[in-house]
Fold these 2 entries.
Entry 1:
Amino acid sequence: MPEISETTKKIEYKTSIAIIVVILSMTFAIRSSNNMYTTSVPLLARYYFFFSNVEIGLLASLASLAIFIMSTFINAKAKPKSRREIFIASSIIYAVTFPFFYISTSLTIWLILPVASFTLGSIMPNIITSASLFKDKKQRERILSIYTLTLSLSLILGPYIESQLLLHVSLAESFLIFSILPAIGMVDSFFIKFPDEMGVKKTGLDTSVLKDRGFQSSLLNILAYNLPFAFLTTYGGLYGKTDFNISLSEVNLTFSMFFLTSFTSRLVFSFRVPEKLSGLMVSSVILSAIGLFMLGTAKTYDLFLLAFLILGIPHGLTYPLSVMSITRSFPEAKRNIANSYFFSIMMAIGTIMPFISGEIIKVIGYRNAFLVLIPAIFVILAVLISLLRARNRDNSPSIEEQL
């Protein structure tokens, strides 16, 4: 019997390693390719199709709306078996659609971008859920930390690779080369693990998730960063090129440096998972405000780059903090619903912000647009602190674990 037990442990260990490899490789492939088109389509729209800032904002909003629809109305409500089928189908569609960016026109980009984005509303929440299925709390949070670390690594290498490619190929041609990554994600999708959700109803809106304080603090935490990040990904490159006359290659290199500081903060986070999350949440919001102020007042490219580096720190912290708070707040059976709602609300913000930011930039310019975000962030910070204090007054052991 001991020999059988030892053999079983070895099999379980190898199975766990295989699951982790699949999760991380798919995370890298999907996130790096997604970030590539998110930051490059605005450049493509401006310098190939001659779109205005408002049109670029509308295009980005349409992409986020497509993700929101999939995540909220299809993925969150689907039964486990159907959701797995939707997930695999989405991965295939994403892989098939991506190369079409290469031959896109000022008309077809309005179809290609939303279709590619629509699939991510299924892909991303389910990868997150799969990474949170390990039974042991320490192992689960370690895997989640490594998962977010992989996200950062993909965001460093993706822009860096593109910056090097743009020295030799056109912006449109770089999409064709990056199509390799969605193909890898398509293969991985067949091996992603899904949770057992027996007894969890899929009809209607689960308000208990929305009322949970762990979910609310996660949402406020990510909201404080998603506002500037929506501006940054859509208009950061255009701002750098317009005000500091940097090349498209340097734009991607700047984003790569931004994600390098994000990666560094997540690396530290993965080695030491905090027992309490509230202090880091507050610190991240404050760093976001500091970075935005520097970005809006930068007089040289060096200061512009420094602002990007500072903003990379809260980028590295906010997402794993939010994901971990959700994981601590919900049992396995409800995590997909919570992750889907979380992702949906993020995308709802992403739907509104690029369009609004395009209008704001049209009126006050790039610099002032980043500065006007600071008061909004401090309002979110005040609400977040109030919520965290309310949670601290709660004597429930589960709340203590979440904080």
Note: The CA atoms of residues 161 and 201 lie 44 Å apart.
Entry 2:
Amino acid sequence: MSARWPTLLLALLLTGCITDGPAGPIPGGTFSGELETGPEPDWSFATDLDSVDIQIFSSRPRTVRTGIVVHEGVPYLPVTWSPLKRWQWVVREEPRILLRADGRLFERRAVPIDDEAERLELVAKGQAKYGFPFHARATGGITKYFRLDPPQGGDGPRP
């Protein structure tokens, strides 16, 4: 009977049945917790974080883990090895996300960085923070970024 537990746990992880975020690189279920409200936070607390979790609103909401770069006081999400990541396309279609950073939960609007000069500046910042392998110089051309803006009026968190 005990030999089945690893298989059962893996099946639960792969089907997204585990709630309250991803389990490492494996996407997970929706977050639980209270959203922070009030004035725009000072994002310096996220500067040295290794990773954050985001909840995206696909047909079945799911959560993924990614890095975070704070540039000029604004948080950005890198999409390293972007040709291999599907979540970026969902976020382009539905930019409302929930961000969990250092245990704090924020509603944000993910804005893709399509300006090449700005993207390259963020790539350099990500390379300085993370280095090899995900932010290696050779992967700079395939690393994309999203700026995390406050939600727009009328945006509300989705269930």
Note: DSSP finds three helices and nine strands in the chain.
